[in-house]
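retry 2 of 3: previous attempt timed out while embedding iron/sulfur cluster. Reduced batch size to 1 and resubmitted. Inputs unchanged:
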Amino acid sequence: MHIPNLVEARKRTNNKVLIKTDDYKLNDNQKNLGKNKKYFIKTYGCQMNEHDSENISAILSDMGYAKTDILEEADLIILNTCAIRENAHNKVFGLLGRIKHLSYTKNIMVGFGGCMAQEEVIVDEIMKKYKWIDFVFGTHNIVNLPNIIEKAYTNKKQEIEVFSCEGDVIENIPVKRDSKYKAWVNIMYGCDKFCTYCIVPYTRGKQRSRLPKYIIKEVEDLIKNGYQEVTLLGQNVNAYGKDLDIDYNMANLLEDVAKTKINRVRFVTSHPWDFDDNMIDIISKYDNIMPYIHLPLQSGSNKILKLMGRRYTKEKYLNLFDKLKEKIPNVSITTDIIVGFPNETEEDFKDTLDVVDKCKYDGAFTFIFSPRIGTPASKMQDDVSLDIKENRLQKLNELVNKYSKENNDKYLNKIVPVLLEDYSSKKKDYLKGYTDTMKLVNVKADSKYLGKIVNVKITSVKTWSMDGEIVN
Ligand code: 5AD
Ligand code: SF4
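retry 2 succeeded.
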């Protein structure tokens, strides 16, 4: 049994990161454990977690399990959880209630993984109040799932395997991708920024970059398999390579990935701190690097940015923003903003609105600050009421939506490239896809266009999406 430990999770040593190429193995028993059984997986949180679930799915598939999207059909239920805010917790515990009910009628195996599994308080609660959960696995323990599940079948006690170590890089985990056309590619794991509100450096360990050769090989294999788009994934992709012994950074990687000639290259998430001019030059130089950047602001107030440990000022952020707009033609920029950080005054909040007014973002994810146990911000004195915070969020959202719609309006009657990736969930006889600038478009099109990048004339525009038709 390995339970999570906050003190360990906070540590950063000079230990060398190990690149492991043969860690993932199955014995004969494990290859058959899932025979005639089905698994259901529910994923919460960011793209990193979505991609982890693609790894988990492949491992379960190797063990003989078949996938089901219906909870009630499953023999094995996996929750891949997120710890970023309190409401993510609430959703998970809601689903656990439903699963417990199901377990009265049927023999099921239940696994609890992801970022919440890295939290001491959560695992404590699971050990005390959720004894019926069969196994708990952390973000560093996915590779070991075959052993964990095998043990859970044989030993009847709750299996808990959560390492709070800094983490290695495992290169041979299999992946079963949700899409046939666009793929997530991890370029790095973990984060060393330690913004004072954020749980990620604790749940995901220290920053570890993958070696370029493995990333390029993965992209080349994706091209061979007909993929049109890759999104390079990391908590802080601009810092890519800083932990490697070789002289190689994000600008180098972006250029090498662009040179593979994959049709579309994207990357998330950028931190304004490490965004250098070389990167901007490379993005504007290569047509297959998409003109879309997610650039979290978090707050427009210098006082709050300092308390958040963000390492930039409002002025520096605006400077970078203007440079991106100037150097990358047609670039669209989205952001993340937190309101109600401890000690945020009306004046501070106005600074945030001011940045939104200046940047006129294409879109923004907005959140009320949620204290995460173990992070410095959770211990900060906070005398701002929830009412005020909710009010600020609402005001901010109104402004953000206004600019989002204004930006979208500019697309009306324009012809833009769209990668059609799936059937539209909203409209019959429509496919959906994204523009190069990451705008969601519903397109009236036959299914033969699935997986194709087509020119689309935009016929109507809303705040969150657009409609269009294919033109030749
Ligand atoms: N409270 C509220 N929002 C948070 N985020 C991260 N941690 C917290 C927190 N404790 C937001 C940030 C980040 C996004 C992924 O989630 O805006 O960029
Ligand atoms: Fe992703 Fe962070 Fe949520 Fe973990 S806590 S799933 S890294 S957003």
